[in-house]
# Entry
Amino acid sequence: MIEINQLTKKFDDFTAVDNLSFTVREGEVLGFLGPNGAGKSTTMKIITGFLSATSGTVKVDGHDIATDPLAVKSLIGYLPEGAPCYPDMTVLQFLDFIAAVRGFSGEEKQRRIDKVVRDVELGAVCHKTIDTLSKGFKRRVGLAQAILHDPKVLILDEPTDGLDPNQKHQVRQLIRNLAKDKIVIISTHILEEVSAVCSRAIIIAGGRILADGTPKELEARSRYYGAVSVQLTEDFDLHRAVATVSEVSGVEVSDVSGRRHVLLPREGAQIFSKVLDLAQNERWPVAEFHLVEGLLEDYFRSVTQGANARVETSDKRTGATQ
Amino acid sequence: MSPLQIIFKRELAGYFATPLAYVFIVIFLVMNGVFTFDLGGFYVRGQADLMPFFSFHPWLYLFMIPAIAMGLWADERKTGTIELLMTLPITLRDAVLGKFLAAWVLCGAALLLTFPIWITVNYLGDPDNGVIVAAYLGSWLMAGSFLAIGSCMSAMTRNSVIAFILTVALCFVFVASGSEIVLNAFNWAPQMLVDAVAALSFLTHFDAISKGVLDVRDILFFLVFMASWLFASAIVIEIKKAN
# Structure
């Protein structure tokens, strides 16, 4: 279990992480979302012991990173942002070094290295120096060193950044396979990734938590939740056609052709069947008609763009209570 | 293997994985030859000792050692691998010492490869080999002291050129602190401080050792000097962690 309690990190007068508290349990895959500069990487660097906190505590399985860093570091596998690896070493030399530092030797070490080379599919580049590898392979080498000791806690800072779609899929598959009875924290700004691999998502901006829930829950908070997407075959005044349905709060044109529309529901209202009936009765020229499940991206934008205003009001609130 | 040994091994292998170690050793040997035979007048002196060889070492180290030391930490910062290293379950002490020892052993290897000059002097005459061994030891200790300064300077910045320049400047101060240039800059100070500065001079301690006077105090000076700067390196890295 990772317990983060009132964690604050200040760089001179800039507050990167602001009084952050949350707990992650075994089996959870936590997606850390936020715009650039939100404090995702800084938080990860503090959990892994690369940076020290200005105030607050981080405990992993009861060990405090500030007082017992070695215990924490041996529990964690960490892929830093950009997956830095020693460029002059070959992949095997590098993994051998990591395995040795992690305390493995002899046959056990060899077995671990072989397994991780297989899992991350590094066989073809084993004897190449890391310097000469493509971005995708470098990222995989970084991932390999992070999972080599089968860590209880896996912290991955943008694990799929810069990978092609196939590689992204592969890495996500790997993370899903690893996730059983482990704690995984990944940071990303690719939102589909969160829906694909995470069991929980935390959105942060300005170093504060803005939202915390399962990806489905967060999607449900989007204003598109329960909306109806309509693709028309010819020009048709949809605005007027739905004017009679009071549960529809608005109509958005969602592509350049001007024929794909999204009908937004009033909060909590179900509009799908009503709109469907109407379309059939009035013979709308419909090519496609479906229910929108909510968009994480939309929720992300609405919550992070409003972040500054929100932070101000909450400041006022805490100011009033003091 | 202990973490210290693992770091040491990786660092040392790292020097030989790139041309760095070979370039360093070859240039070191060539420069030594030039200094000893041309500038030092090895033959002209007509004496069977290695004084012309060793007396140039402080000045040779002044540029060669900072070149080795500048990458110790600055490169790790630049490539981001420091984040990997410092999140592995090793202590800061192991990391600082392991890196330092690897660089120091490289210097030792370069120094040992000057053995032909020792053979030469033994072929030509009948030198005091005890003095020569002592001088080699002194030279290696001095190289370590330069390296320890370099380790600290390298920890301060992610730019290895800055680390190089700072190291050269600081090393110059310590090489020359017994000389008029530096001592004159302290002529305002009380005699005790002037003496203290003079006592920090590498030249004084190295000269003593290389003349075969193996005084424990001279050896201790270099060892304490190295330990202090390595400790300072660790403090710098620890401070950087908070910022």
